[in-house]
Amino acid sequence: MHTPVTIIGAGLGGLTLARVLHVHGIPVTVYEAESSPTARAQGGMLDIHDYNGQLALKAADLMDEFHAIVIEGRQTMRLVEQDGTVLHEMADDGTGGRPEVQRGELRRILLDSLPADTVRWGHKVGSTRTLGEGRHEVTFADGSTVVTSLLVGADGAWSRVRPLLSDATPEYVGTSFVETYLFDADTRHTGSAKVVGGGSMVAPSPGKEIFAHRESGDTLHAYVALSRPQDWFAAIDFTDASAAAARIAREFDGWAPELTALITDADITPVLRPHYALPAEHRWDRVPGATLLGDAAHLAAPNGEGANLAMLDGAELGRTLAAYPDDIEAALTEYEQAMFARSSEPVTLEGTEVHGIDSENNTPQAMLRMLTEHGQ
């Protein structure tokens, strides 16, 4: 295939596509709004699953590099009650199919696997338009443009490429995370460090829960989930760290102090992360010379699959383009049909559908029953 591929977005999905294309000798350029690879923090831990994310890394020929960044022991997971009692712990014996890595490290090995000029940093997309005959023009914020015969939107929830294919826009799903970090936890936040343990911990309850993960070293990264309307969060001044933390913590009155300390003792200002989603059955008619992957195509509320699916999208798109070097439309059609089906499948744990935060089954006891039924 000699048609150069233009990718918008240097996240995990876009970079996986670029790497698979590079493996197959297909020319590719990635345009990224961020000014450099280190322009912002890349988020916390990711569990990379053997049935999607790892398949993508195999297609990218990066499994050795992946194994080198896995943090041992982080697959350990605790199920905790509101009073801090550890109800159940799944140990990490090294045989699980969801090894944990830092998102930033995963992005780094993808970037390192590409020629230095593959990613063009500091290219924020302002708009896109169709020119006809499968050609599209991308206009960047600085006024510069690029015209391409194969455009891939890997640019996330608020994709600037998506309007070429679909008029769908993400909508708030009714829940948000409030994200916090506790540093030097083993010496400065001992109660929270003890309850989280060596991997991750979840304390679920209908309409709210606290999830925390031990990252590299003794950093704790917590995600406090609440089912509340956007105007409820808008009434909180998140620039006032102590007041914001205190307001969020009030929603967990009566919970163990080592759990609420993950909110009140944070070493950063709490960060609000509203959850948006595209329609569950988001589809579009085939548009010559353009497609989407990852959140640009099938944004969903956090469910543990987003990054894995984005990477698999990228790998599968790269594979189909390499398989049909003389027929781009056949490649895009095959890719989209498989991606539509894959992204609409319910999230499951060993064949049991995972319930959302608002479910009456979002309790430690219900989760324990589900885990026990499947030998966890």
Automatic annotation (TrEMBL):
Protein name, as recorded: Flavin-dependent monooxygenase
Upper classification of the organism: Bacteria, Bacillati, Actinomycetota, Actinomycetes, Kitasatosporales
Record organism: Streptomyces piniterrae
Binding residues for FAD: D47, R103, D295
Function, in words: An FAD-requiring monooxygenase active on some tetracycline antibiotic derivatives, which leads to their inactivation. Hydroxylates carbon 11a of tetracycline and some analogs.
Required cofactor(s): FAD
InterPro entries found in the cross-reference section: FAD-bd, FAD/NAD-bd_sf, TetX_monooxygenase
Subunit-level organization: Monomer.
Family: Belongs to the aromatic-ring hydroxylase family. TetX subfamily.
Reaction(s) catalysed (UniProt annotation): a tetracycline + NADPH + O2 + H(+) = an 11a-hydroxytetracycline + NADP(+) + H2O
Name of the top EC class for this enzyme: oxidoreductase
Superkingdom of the source species: Bacteria
Subcellular localization, as worded in the UniProt entry: Cytoplasm
Gene Ontology cellular-component annotations: cytoplasm
SUPFAM superfamilies registered for this protein in UniProt: FAD/NAD(P)-binding domain (SSF51905)
Keywords assigned: Cytoplasm, FAD, Flavoprotein, Monooxygenase, NADP, Nucleotide-binding, Oxidoreductase
GO molecular function: FAD binding; monooxygenase activity
A single GO BP: response to antibiotic
Domain notes: Consists of an N-terminal FAD-binding domain with a Rossman fold and a C-terminal substrate-binding domain.
Coiled-coil regions, chain positions: none
Protein EC: 1.14.13.-
Main location: cytoplasm
Ranges for domain FAD-binding: 3-324
Residues that, per the record, bind NADPH: R40
